[in-house]
Design brief:
With 320 residues, this protein is of the alpha+beta class. It has eleven helices and nine strands. The chain starts with a helix and ends with a helix.
Length: 320
């Protein structure tokens, strides 16, 4: 399936070619027909379109590059020392890799990603008004609720702020209020509709998760952010500044959501390098920042090596 970013690039290049041709043709047909410079410009635009078509064509699994394979083996060797599941995917080409993707972990606060996505999608179609308010009562008080601790019982809090608290600071009281509003069965059904198997499975309000489930959630989140609506940009901003984000680089941000309980520490995110990728890291290693950062750095290296080969091959085929 061609992803939105790929479509945007190809459509842009195609329209650029048409506009370049049309403006020159209609403004001065005779000059255009006699101008080698203008003809060269049109050819260059067509070549650029072909180049991006080549760069972002769907990964078939046949491509194999020695340095990419070596980097993946290096990642596997590193993961072998830990109780961990890792899944990464380039959402544009579909290039991906998974390790222990079927292993089941406690989802913890990663479920808040699903709740936030559900509510913002409902707001997009008019089924939810994010400015509607919910009443904070003592029944919602829960540990690790840094934002809701500022409110007294009986206070009305808008849904938009509750989502912001649940994503940015992983506020548990805010999440419990949202879950009551959404409905346990509705959120479970929504997660299942995205392709996840373990949404809210396990007997509590957080449920379980696998690498497969995580990537299903992240693909939907990525596609929603790519719509670039006002609400999508707003929600994306919450994930970018979210607490315990171990996926950022000094030169690149990530939209991230962590989940932590007992020995479980999970990190799901979209890393915005030149060619963004989705990554799920599920562990029974506790809050180990170095582990998550090292895994993420190795994954970035693999993605960049993959695109370096695509770039080399496509430029050679288009311009040599």
């Amino acid at each position: 399936m061609i992803m939105k970013k790929k479509k945007k690039i190809l459509i842009f290049m195609f329209l650029f070619s048409l506009i370049s041709f049309g403006l020159i043709f209609f403004c001065d047909k005779e000059d255009y027909e006699n101008s080698n410079v203008d003809a060269a410009t049109t050819i260059a635009a067509e070549n650029e379109y072909d180049y991006y078509s080549c760069i972002y064509y769907t990964y078939s699994g046949i491509e194999s590059y020695d340095d990419v394979n070596a980097a993946i083996k290096d990642l596997e060797s590193y993961l072998a020392s830990y109780d961990v599941s890792v899944y990464f995917e380039d959402p544009v080409t579909g290039f991906s890799y998974s390790y222990n993707e079927d292993d089941i972990y406690y989802a913890a606060s990663t479920i808040k990603l699903v709740a936030a996505l559900y509510l913002y999608n409902m707001a997009e179609n008019g089924s939810v008004n994010l400015d509607d308010t919910l009443v904070y009562t003592s029944s919602y008080k829960y540990d690790s609720s840094i934002d809701m601790e500022k409110y007294s019982y009986g206070t009305s809090v808008c849904i938009r702020n509750l989502v912001k608290y649940a994503v940015e600071d992983s506020d548990n009281s805010a999440y419990r209020m949202l879950l009551d509003y959404i409905g346990f069965d509705n959120l479970k059904a929504y997660g299942n509709s995205l392709g996840a198997q373990y949404t809210l499975v396990g007997g509590d309000n957080y449920g379980e998760i696998t690498g497969n489930d995580a990537i299903a959630y992240l693909n939907e989140l990525y596609d929603y952010f790519e719509t670039e609506t006002t609400l999508a940009v707003e929600l994306q901003s919450y994930f970018i500044v979210a607490d315990e984000n171990y996926l950022d680089f000094s030169d690149a941000q990530a939209a991230s959501k962590y989940g932590e309980y007992s020995e479980f520490h999970n990190e799901l995110g979209i890393v915005y390098i030149d060619n963004p990728y989705l990554i799920s890291i599920l562990t029974r290693e506790g809050d180990n920042e170095e582990l998550n950062e090292t895994i993420n750095a190795k994954v970035r290296n693999i993605i960049e090596l993959f695109y370096a080969h695509r770039n080399s091959i496509c430029r050679a085929s288009m311009y040599d």
